[in-house]
Amino acid sequence: MLQLYFFPMACSLASRIALMEAGIEAHYHLAHIWTKEVVDDGSDFRGISPKGAVPVLVLENGERLTESAAVLQYIADLKPEAGLAPRFGDPDRYRLQEWLSFIGAEIHKAFLFPTFWYKDDGSLAKPRARIAQTLSVPSAHLADREFLVGNRFTVADAHLTWALLLLRPAGVDIAQWPSLSAYIERMQARPAVLGAIATEMALRKTVAANPA
Questions:
Q1: Where does the chain have alpha helices with state H?
Q2: Cys bridge to 99: 81, 146, 156, 162, which one at CB 3.0-4.6 A?
Q3: What pLDDT sits at residue 207?
């Protein structure tokens, strides 16, 4: 069985969504991203991944895969009939990779990561000034379409859904982008997405109440 190392409401949420959308069973291990402890057994998470970051997907053969873009595509390809990624040879496969890269680099690492990890001593001024321009890209793209790629939900939507959910606690109100507001409402209406979020929100409260 696959194993996913995650932290509640971190970017690994997208991997949980993908697994649930695909109907793939997995064993989930909560890894505390600040203390680097695997909550199950108190072991050092860095023994699982030297990066000390989630997600980490442990494959059936014991190999470990990291980085959301890679993990999400792997999950999608495990069950191609679920349609979570265009098949190899389809031009939209590269559109999927384009969006995964954009979300990871321009929203996650350029804005969400420094916002939640760095002390606001003035160094966050540039990321905050840039995020509106960044979000205008998916906002315009989604103005006349339901999903990021093609005409169905893909792992790129799982990734963007997570990013948009984190924007509010990061101080960004997406109501100023109506297409993004409508998009996140559509995504949260999906049973798998709703279930994944509910599970991780409950776990997040547990972690907050019992900081390691």
A1: 13-22, 68-78, 92-102, 113-117, 125-141, 155-167, 178-188, 191-209
A2: 156
A3: 76
